[in-house]
Amino acid sequence: MKNIKSKIPSGFTLIELLVVVSIISMLATIILTSTKMLFDKGKDSAIRYNMANLLTQASIYTLNTGYYDGFCADSSANVFISEINKLAPSSYAVLCSCNTGSCPAGAKATTWCSSIKLNRIDVAYKNRNFVFCVDSTGKKIESAKVTCANGSCVMGI
How far are the Cα atoms of 17, 110, 131 from residue 60, in angstroms, in the given order? Predict the structure, then answer.
């Protein structure tokens, strides 16, 4: 008798391999996108925290000096401003404003505000970045429509 070996296919077909590779690449895309969103949320949270600290520092500064004059250039403010600028989206920087302009020395500024663009985007409002604004009245506003002007957080269009 002849020894008959049955032909059993060994290994995977090309189609099976392509399906597995495509599924793995889709899963990797989903995971990487989710990871980037989590990093952006973490950065925004750190920005909010540092902006709240900047607000506290402004209150301490005005208790010591009586006005907000020179606060934006003060070393105590620059510690927080530099950290916030590192976390903000590229090409955006902290805006620091008083009712006398950019808080120059001797101007006797009585109100102060600061704002920064966050990493989060408002898709309902022309894909603009959200802005986080704090001011001397204690307001903390997060919106795509807020701006810091004349020492106060103002809702715009």
Answer: 65, 14, 24
Cα–Cα distances in Å, from 35 out to 9, 30, 118?
Answer: 41, 9, 17
Q: State the Cα–Cα distance between residues 94 and 115, nearest whole angstrom.
A: 6
Each domain of the chain, given as residue ranges in start order, spans: 15-155
Q: Which two tokens stand for residue 15?
A: 């189609």
Tens digit of each residue's pLDDT (9 = 90 or more) over 4-23: 566 666 788 899 999 999 99
Q: Maximum Cα–Cα distance for the chain, whole Å?
A: 111
